[in-house]
Design goal:
The structure is a homotrimer. Chain A is an alpha/beta fold and about 425 residues long. Chain A has helices spanning about 5-15, 25-35, 100-105, 135, 190-205, 220-235, 265-275, 290-295, 330-345, 380-390, 395-405, 405-420, and strands at about 40-45, 50, 55, 60-70, 75-80, 95-100, 105, 130, 145-155, 155-165, 170-175, 210-215, 235-245, 255, 280, 305, 350-355, 390-395, 425. The mean pLDDT of chain A is about 95.
């Protein structure tokens, strides 16, 4: 029943222990595992120092370990136990520090005292440790030994790209980010669901659209990718989706584009209102992942973020509590199912036009009851409504919205009319 | 007070006993009675077998009688008592049948056990009887004699058309159907109110619009008519109305066009909101009469259905209980009055433009109080508002909607301004 | 704190005793007092009898005194006590009249029995007195002596105009009327606040817009002014405001333009919703001052009326109770502040466009926190949102409405981005 969900969950489990960041070997080896499943993914390396729009690709960061010990040699915290313990992009350090100096380099989330927060300092060189507030409270010694075995050096930023060609150059875009250390919902769920969607799309005998997938580091990755592909993306993209936080079992949600009027908004809204009427639509004001860049002034691509419990909106977000227990095969399967419905709606989202004037005579084709008595028509009502609105002015999503019938149920009707040569589309 | 309503009711009473169908002598003789009142109506005959868009004109059906009798010669039901008793378009039959075989040919409406339902089988040859559920329950003999004296043969489909020319070729369209046997609201009310509206329009000294009226059989009739007149109708029609179920005294209602944005929608909505604020606006999803064809994909004419209690929405619909007691002179008069208001609104629905800049000085024309004190202005407020919005951007219906004042009350204001040469229109 | 308000209130106090009308020396001397503060105002005289669109400039009215006395010589009412006592535009009279004849020439507001109403008869020659209902009830003598020392003769209509040039010919327009006798809110508040706004605008080192100010008599004054300036105003005016009843401390309100869609509507709505969320927006149906003419058919200028308690809507309106106690420095200051905000919003209301693709890297400019942890972003959220919507599609007011942040708070953000060469505008 949740067959795909189980596979997705297993992949997430395999990736979970690796310490990833926006550059470095953790990202690289995680992407390699995904390439093991989808070998067609192309891997790109962009050198540190490359200018990408207003930004510069940073130095590459790698980390091998880190700890705080008492002078008696007792370990207070260790990177081996949880890779959130070292501040993301921390410079190396090895020295004895007073408690006061140490505390200036310690990050906690005091209102969630048991959890280790996820903190980074990509663009200013610092060293630092993250720990639970409770752990911080137990730092009572006067002096500690601190050690971070990291490197911050010229290297490169890594990303993966896959383009699955379709019948046309019109593109549907999927983007997810692989730069977070051991957190499950945010963000292994996105890369793992995206991997499953690639396999689904590869399995289709025919694709109307070309599909573009990227696995990038957040923010600097989308900026880097856009700096190399913007023109083509602006020319071809019809709809795009950032996949993020798609693994829990709470609500569904999405972040709208700036003016809430693109095909991406329309298809998500349409699919979710039938699939999960309690879904939440966030305005663009609530953006915080790569849809920030895709929707930025001058870029203006039609990209929504799709989530279950959205980043920033659930308590475990950016803490050690966002672990493999927070996500589930069921949760991942649900997101996968929504995106498959989205893809099917898009693939069938033509403007339909009846070929005959007036209603066709459905009866002679066995599509209409031959006895006319009140109460006999309900069964064919959906087909009649589809026929009425297949007047060249509405696409499939528009018809679905007008009729308040899911696209899933309209596709067989449309196919029957095509079979009988009653319908054209473009 | 209900003078027109009484005449309309009397005409309905005269037509009631005749057994009509979508073709045949019942339709023909009913139309002749109407032609007796409006001799200018032209009658057309379209041969069986004629192809009309996706459809074919069926054989002509005529019926002279029919009954079910016990072998003892007792009449169970007889066409003479109620012409709904024979299935519409039933083939002839005369034989002795077992109770079981008979029941396969008997139609009832079990949830309304006292009433005979109206059932037809136009496009598949069958024989059959309709009766009340109670009558069916009393069929306890093992064998019955059944007799239907009908014919189903090459002939023609009959319809009537009247075009009343006006100042322009722009057209207003009225359509009603005359194909139902003895049922009063659905559908003698429509043809009879339409007959009265023709007389009203003939009595006008001046008509801005050309008016097109048709008396047709439902569905196949509108398809046939459209197949012969579509191009001209698409070129000239500004608004159209199907008149159906306009004889009872319950609510008023109308069925919108597909996108609810045509002049037909606008004028009905405007007139009804002042005339009867509790009126019901049905979406195009609730269409079921000839507006189905007029609004179909590729035809796309601006036609609403106007009703009091709409077909499908009242309990007596398509049963023997839809009789002369269900309609009344008052009910018919009300519908007549609404349509006269609709016609007047349309005839006056120009875009108005004041000829002077700034407000005109109404005082010097005796149209404004000469004393200025708070409370003295209310009387001329409507005229001042009309003047403000007569800026060339709004038609009469638009101004009425903005000012929330019925068109009826704006027409004398408009006339006064025209008299004083302050206004132009186009 | 209410420094401007105090100056405005003092000016109103100085003007209060003068008896003004739509023509005559009262208007003239009031305008001279204002010219004493703003000497650049140009004064125009338009001769009686001049045709202005559908109207004619009336005779000039001047009044020196008037009273009703008993035959015993006791004064019943005297113009010296309150200049509302003589009907505006009353012809001269001096005779002995019966009580009955007198009462035909007496105007009261019976539902406000202590107050003298303000009544005029500009376009029909009459004599008359206004008094409180209580005063009228005390008229018990059989005969009275009545005296009105007025003149109604060929002369001219006076108005003042000031044009403050700006960087472009695009204009912002302010209009107020100076034709009311001793009433404070309606209408000394408008001319006095307008005088202060002129001083504010003169003090600006740079003005994007040209500002046009008029001090006119109501209705005939705006018609006269439009008859001489319409073409230029239609060509250049971007937004305009009638200032009326802007001196009390009750609500704020404005009267929309006809279609509620002009820059004047947008800026007032935007400023007031942040400044005073309980403000009232009246439809154009509630117009009654010069916005009637500015918004009339064929003129169609983008002019709203700005008020605190709107004319017609407060009990003291057009009575002797609309005195210097009804207005206050605080009340006048509030209106002044709103209009200064309106001017600042207009001056900054460009379409903004980010110069870089993707979000700029705010961090390297010290505009963004260098530590990324949940909860650290709120401070820069407004700037990020401004950047996102600075895509060339929105003006400043539009961005403010989308972000729900006052223009006042967006201007420093915009300035910071301009400083960093990240933004362009047009």
């Amino acid at each position: 029943m949740n067959e795909e969900g189980k596979k997705i969950y297993d992949l997430a489990g395999k990736l979970f222990p690796i310490c990833r960041s926006i550059t470095g070997n953790g990202f690289r080896s995680s992407l390699e595992i995904i390439c093991g499943i989808v070998p067609e993914i192309q891997v790109f390396e962009v050198p540190s120092g490359t200018e990408v729009f207003d930004w510069t690709v940073p130095k590459e960061w790698n980390i091998r370990g880190g700890w705080i010990r008492s002078l008696q040699g007792e370990t207070v915290i260790d990177f081996k136990d949880c890779n959130l313990h070292v501040l993301g992009y921390s410079v190396p350090i090895h020295k004895t520090v007073s408690r006061d100096e140490l505390l200036e380099h310690v990050y906690t989330q005091p209102e969630q005292p048991d959890w280790i927060p996820y903190v980074t300092s990509y663009y200013k060189e610092r060293w630092g440790f993250c720990m639970s507030e409770n752990q911080k409270q137990s730092l009572t010694d006067a002096v500690y030994e601190v050690f971070i075995d990291s490197s911050l050096e010229a290297g490169s930023l890594t990303y993966g790209e896959l383009i699955l060609p379709g019948e046309t150059e019109d593109e549907i875009f999927f983007s997810t980010y692989l730069c977070h250390p051991s957190m499950a919902n945010n963000e292994l769920s996105g890369p793992c669901v995206q991997t499953a969607l690639i396999q689904y799309l590869k399995s289709l005998s025919h694709r109307r659209y070309t599909y573009r997938f990227v696995f990038i580091p957040e923010t600097i990755g989308s900026i880097t990718y856009l700096s190399r592909n913007l023109q083509s993306m602006q020319q071809h993209m019809k709809a795009g989706f950032v996949l993020s936080c798609v693994g829990d079992e709470r609500t569904y949600s999405y972040v709208s584009t700036k003016y809430e009027d693109t095909l991406a908004d329309r298809v998500l809204d349409n699919v979710l209102k039938f699939h999960y009427p309690g879904y939440i639509r966030f305005s663009f004001m609530k953006r915080a992942s790569d849809e920030r860049q895709y929707g930025s002034a001058g870029v203006d691509l039609p990209v929504c973020a799709f989530c279950r419990s959205k980043y920033h909106e659930y308590p475990e977000y950016h803490t050690s509590a966002d672990n493999m227990d927070l996500i589930s095969p069921e949760g991942l399967q649900g997101s996968y199912d929504v995106m498959v419905k989205v893809i099917n709606a898009l693939e069938n989202n033509y403007f339909y036009q009846m070929k005959c004037k007036c209603e066709p005579q459905l009866g002679k084709r066995g599509l209409y009851p031959t006895i006319s008595q009140k109460g006999t028509y309900e069964a064919v009502r959906a087909m009649q409504h589809f026929i009425a609105y297949a007047d060249g002015r509405n696409d499939m999503i528009g018809i679905s919205n007008i009729l308040n019938i899911p696209v899933d149920q309209l596709i067989p009707i449309k196919n029957k009319l095509l079979e009988h040569h009653l319908l054209s589309f473009k």
